[in-house]
Amino acid sequence: MKLSKIFSQISSKKVLVVGDFLLDTYTIGGTSRISPEAPVPVLRVDEVSHRPGGAGNVALNLISLGLKVVALGRIGDDDSGVLLKNELEKEGIETTGLFSQKLYCTPIKNRVIASNQQIVRIDYEKITPISDDLEERILQQLTTLLQDVDVVAISDYGKGFLSDEFLQALISSARQREIPVIVDPKGADFSKYAHASLIKPNFVEAVQASNLDEETDVDLIGQAVLQRSMCEELVITRSDQGISYFSKSGIREDFPVKIRQVKDVTGAGDTVLAVMTCSVAHKFPMQMACRLSNIAAGLAVEVLGCARITLQQLAQRLLEEDVENKVFDDDHLYALQEVLRNRGLTLLGLEEDTQLTPELLKTIRSLSVTDRDLMVYFRDGSPCEELVHILTSLRDVDYIIHNHASFRKLCQMIKPSDVYVFGRKELKKLDQVSALFTGEQNG
């Protein structure tokens, strides 16, 4: 199956995101001089913004992928905790499972950015074990929190919330309900995640958990981690080398990654966890899940700070990699729908007898504007191959469709801003898209 076809299957599955919820702060400004007090730059602050981090960033990515999210974690009894909870609720994330713990400070990661470059990160945090009374309260509510959940995503940042006892109780409760559990682990001891469905460490974490060294073959590292963690599947993210997949049943595969420009690797692991979770929730094959995760990771590292990958961005990159030219068919319709969501589109229908003329080229150039994409539709099901080839080479043309059934389906999903038809050296504007099917030309 083409990756771009999966968008027809994505729906609002429900995910329980469990882990360490942090508050990410971005202090952004410019530097133009060195401090007279010390050899350090002076930052002139222009903007300070806040957003959920840690497990919160996983939740944001899942929301952007169209899933429903319930948060299970803790915050401090402080202003930062209130701010974090409010930011999650603004995004439509359910926070009934977000508990306050006395004498616990909500972790803050303040990234100081000057000229689009992070110059320092200031962390306000203290590793604090979950209190006995809070752990008991959460365990008593597990049944309610797991209600109607399709998958559990555990994001462990090592802040003390995820005790061994709590993890095993959570994983056991999920397994009893046949709910898959995916873990982004922390630390060298993965036995605390025993019997999870899938575990997703990066290469350094996998090496530590395997008790081997970095020079060891990745196959041996993967097998050691599988045995020690007692999980069913293992995904090791390996930076520019992509993803390596292992299963308890013996399946083994590598998935390379394409990265255009690395700006910041912050939060890329959260993005991979979110896409893996989305894939498992929809029961996509693991090959597809790994390929999607690679594409999302490539997008994430191209953005400064913690990236939040949307379905639209994922669809755009999928189409760029999947479509060799600009001609789209049935397999790409749902991805194309996501790309065009909330974007302006001008539609140009070409008559059967349309020839490549200066008038046609001039028309296309006049319809191509910066805030809208231009789609060309061939009303003839079998257009001239030479004309199609020339149009695909034009920068002004973004999409070409010449399959009648495909075009009808697409028109049910999107609403072009303007519709035109060109034939016999004449351009006419239509009142509605349906006129392209009936041949009715109003204007």
CATH topology of the largest domain: UDP-N-acetylmuramoyl-L-alanine:D-glutamate ligase
How many β-strands, per DSSP?
A: 18
CATH level-two architecture of the largest domain: 3-Layer(aba) Sandwich
Proportion of beta-strand residues: 25-35%
The CATH superfamily of the largest domain is known as Ribokinase
Global mean pLDDT: 87
> Could you estimate the helical fraction of the residues in percent?
25-40%
Q: Unreliable segments (pLDDT under 50, ≥5 consecutive)?
A: none
Number of domains: 2
CATH level 1 class label of the largest domain: Alpha Beta
Oligomer: single chain
SS-based structural class? alpha/beta
The outline comes out as: globular
How much is the radius of gyration in Å? 25 Å
Strand order of the largest sheet: 5-4-1-8-9-10-11-12-13
**Total number of helical segments?**
15
Distance between the termini: 42 Å
Largest β sheet strand count, sense and barrel closure: 9 strands, mixed
Descriptive key words:
Rossmann fold, globular, nine-stranded mixed sheet, UDP-N-acetylmuramoyl-L-alanine:D-glutamate ligase, 443 residues, alpha/beta, five-stranded mixed sheet
